[in-house]
Task: inverse folding
């Protein structure tokens, strides 16, 4: 591990493209970050200097060694750990958030990527931190929840559901449909909701699993509608809100559309 002052960058195994790729959210995209993790380094912005550290020099650390990193806080007071794949990405936060190190120019520590992610996981477990944000305020920004961090550290790529859900199904994907009957309560809730929606002529409830984007099988609703495509997102929100109390584990439902025109 080494500490650096606020100017210049250091040579490292750059994980920027791996993080950018993982933002797509597909299992195969996250696999690249998993594959490169042990060869990479990450950069930790420091609120306090590391005692005894010299600029650009590696230091040995004992078990229990801790850093005092900067954190992000959102409008709802949620706290996020932050790491960066390139120290140049710290500049926008220095300007926007006035980040410094004990009143002086911002310093950062260069940490092997695996150790950095383990530290972020410990922060989530022990210090009421919500999640990890990689490359905050950059176009490669990636948020990882605790379960996603755990999976990556275990060498297992899983879909990042919060990212992949916004991407239409791609040609390389395969969606499997289970033969199981949907819960009667969910069928009734969907039927009641659809009955009050203009331009919706029918529906089909399925249980599906897509290995590239799903963690486990889940409910999927197909709606036939003559309403314009621009209205589909708000229509999906209406249906999800109406049936959310009846959705079986894992607790979410996908809404797909078929054009009835």
Result:
């Amino acid at each position: 591990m080494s500490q650096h002052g606020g100017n210049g960058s250091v040579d490292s195994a750059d994980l920027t493209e791996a993080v950018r790729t993982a933002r797509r959210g597909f299992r195969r995209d996250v696999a690249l970050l998993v594959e490169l993790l042990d060869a990479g380094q990450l950069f930790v912005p420091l609120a306090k200097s590391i005692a005894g550290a010299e600029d650009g020099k590696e230091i040995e650390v004992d078990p229990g060694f801790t850093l005092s990193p900067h954190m992000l806080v959102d409008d709802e007071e949620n706290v996020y750990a932050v790491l960066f794949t390139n120290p140049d990405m710290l500049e926008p936060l220095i300007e926007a958030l006035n980040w410094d190190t004990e009143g002086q120019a911002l310093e950062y520590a260069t940490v092997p990527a695996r150790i950095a992610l383990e530290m972020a996981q410990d922060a989530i477990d022990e210090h009421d931190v919500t999640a990890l944000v990689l490359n905050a305020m950059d176009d490669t920004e990636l948020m990882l929840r605790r379960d996603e961090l755990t999976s990556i550290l275990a060498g297992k790529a899983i879909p990042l559901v919060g990212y992949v859900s916004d991407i239409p199904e791609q040609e390389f994907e395969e969606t499997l449909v289970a033969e199981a009957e949907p819960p009667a309560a969910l069928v009734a809730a969907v039927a009641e909701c659809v009955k009050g929606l203009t331009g919706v002529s029918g529906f089909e409830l399925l249980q599906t699993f897509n290995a590239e984007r799903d963690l486990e099988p889940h409910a999927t609703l197909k709606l036939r509608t003559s309403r314009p495509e621009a209205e589909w997102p708000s229509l999906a929100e209406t249906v999800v809100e109406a049936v959310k109390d009846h959705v079986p584990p894992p607790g979410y439902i996908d809404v797909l559309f078929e054009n009835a025109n």
